[in-house]
Amino acid sequence: MFIYSLKASTIKFFAVVCVALATLITLIAFIPVAAVDDVAASADADIDYSGIKTNEDRIKFLAQFGWQVNPEAVQSVEVTIPEDFDKIFTAYNELQKRQGLDLTKFKKKNVQRYTYEITNYDGYNGVVYANILVYRNKVIAGDVCSADTKGFMHGLQR
Known about the structure:
By secondary structure, the protein is α+β, with helices and mostly antiparallel strands. The chain is built from three helices and five strands. It has a five-stranded antiparallel beta sheet with strand order 1-2-3-4-5. The longest helix has 36 residues, at 8-43. The chain starts with 7 loop residues before the first helix and ends with a strand.
C-alpha cells in the first residue's frame, strides 16, 4: 500500500495551474474562430447572396464582384449536388469554403447552374465564364473559369 500526502501549498499550486490551463485552452478554442468569422463577415458584408430570382438579379449579383457579363446566360441547367463528393467535387467545395460558402448542406439537392460570359476580365485574352449555383433564390456557390482545357478557375472575387 502506498500513501502519498500533499501540503496545502502543493494543492493550491496544482489548482492554479489547472485553472490557467483551462483558461488558455478556452482562449485558444474561441478567440481565433471569432476573429476569423468576423473577418469573413466583414469581407462579405457588402455581398448579397439572396433574392436571386431573375436574370437581372443574377447580373447584379455578379456585378457586386466587379464582373460585367453578357446579358444572356450562355447556359442554364439543373444539376444535382451529389451525396458523396468525389475528389473533383471535394476540391470545388474547398474553393467554395474559401469564399464563405459550403455545398455540404445541399447534398442531394437539385440546383440551377447559370453560366455567363465575362466581358471585362483583364490580363487574359480567351473566353472567361462566371458560374453560379442557385438554390431557392440564393447563390450557394460560384466560380470564374476560363474556357481553355489548360485554363484556370478561382472564386468570384477578382
